[in-house]
Amino acid sequence: MPVIPVAGSEKFASTAEDSQIDIKDVDPGLRLHTSGALTEVDALTYEIVRHRLAAITEEMGETIKRMSGSVVVTDAVDFGVCITDEIGSAVQVGMYNAQLCATMDMAVRWTLKNRSANPGIRPGDMFICNDPWVGGGVHQNDVSLFAPLFVGDELFAWTCVVAHQLDLGGVSPGSWSVHSKDVFWESLPIPPLKIVSQGSIQADVEDSYLRRSRIPALVALDLRAKVGANNVAQQQVHRLVGKYGADTVKAVMKRIMDDAESRLRARLREIPDGSWTSVAYQDQAREGDRGLYRIVVRMTKTGDELEFDFTGTDEQADGLINCTFAGLRGGVTTGVLTQLCGSIPWAPGGLMRCVSVISEPGTINNCTFPAGISKASVASAWATGNAVHECLASMLDSEETDTPNFMSVCKGTFGLSMLAGLDHEAHPFVTMLSDCMAGGFGARPDRDGVDTAGESPNLGGRIADVEMNEFAYPVLYLWRREEPDTGGPGKFRGGVGGSSCMILHDAPVDQIHLVSCSAGKAVPQAVGLSGGYPGSASYELIFRDSDVRAGIGARMPSTLDEIGGSAEIVPPALETQLNWNDVYYFEWQGGGGYGDPLLRDPGLVVSDVRNGKVTPGAAEATYGVKVLDGDGEASYDVGQTRTLRATLRGERAGKAAR
To answer: What is the model's pTM?
Structure first.
């Protein structure tokens, strides 16, 4: 789309250079604690302080979960926390949604450059931000709150919290504007604003922030949960400094980043050099669009460094699927953390020194203002992470080792289902169903992927209990379960995904609002490796005017054939109403497979059929295994299986089997 310039937007445009800072850009009146780098720290003290910093991020996570009233925070764990040094380099991130914390350094450094002189950065201050062109989050619903930590009169560190907010305005409930053509259809971004001054929330700034939301009380509670998490972190870091001294703690922080860098470089040197490519796709930029959009990356590993070159990625789209450079960087960072740093401390301030990124502004994963970005986190940012994941896994697959430690791409995307309306008590609500977070993990080179395991970027994420959703919102689940044939076929199968099916229940009105926004319906997102097939595509249906409610008292339905009514296929982006007699069904993705499915042990295929992971039809058509079902014990026909596999190989080669 042609980019319409917006006066002054250049100030907020983040690039790769914004991951660095020139001290000359900081107001000279703000004193930075830069000593400690040369302080000698014995091994025991280093480990004690290092582990204490990690424990503080856990305390931050527990604080926000205990104080928040949003199931997206308390149950789905869609938040992140981190501690940075005085210039924003991330020393320790919590084991939560890593994508959210991957760009906190950008937001802190922007604040140092643009807020240190006016309005100033002082003890007790906290800055709020939901501007992905600045950093600190991937789309506008990711609201970060970061606080400078002073020791004496010197800025010593920053504590940071970021969490998804359920509604911050815009055209559609939940702020996922499926009709969006640019950011002005969506929740407008807030660059860093001082919302807490000298320990007190500023009422005028908070009112301006809350006024945009359909559920201001819940958003206000989450703001206080973030304040509480920062307060806990600051108290604990001050205790640490009081016990060991500022220079010692700062020396440990610098060494954590240096050690993480050196360990990642050592790991990279063990792997053969080479280049790997990947293409990830996004389908439907907005409701009614029929486009397919590519994210292209070439990863080159040379010695102890990685370069990700996104040249050739499609131009930014006229819709909501774009992401800023912050989203691109989040996708790269989470790929590196999850694929290469399983035994290395998660200190992005050191790890990302090994990584360089090439990207063209104006593309769908490095868009310029005012492109639409309300779906960025689960659209182009997530797809960027998938492409990076595939390249890294392919690189690790080239390594000769007896203990391979990687997997195919996990559940390819987050299938958004946003509900809004009046709850059981006739109070307004907006919620995001987290069911699809139980996605299948990718297969490994020596074992199947984990079924309904979660999400690789969000290590702490989980799905809300069915009973919790039914308690909080006017819905009744007909089922939530794993679905066969959703895991990518392979010598080792990808983990399966699942499905949920629900109706309105105990509602004060006879309809609620639905915003569905799920990528991967035209093209599966979780690709396989080394001949493995991708996981399933996303799939959603709305059954209009079903009579299923009448029979629930006698028997709960268990198949789609029992639902009745008129079935409507839900496209990748849709905003509609669910009426009293409608049934909503959504199925999410499994992980990619590894290796040729015709090489899978037939006994494992039989076990999959018996356990409901694979259907008999897929066992024959994809795995070439003729499963027999007799006397309650599944087995397979050896002769027919041999013939089936020979036929399938012949079809691949374009000739009849002999």
So the answer is: 0.94
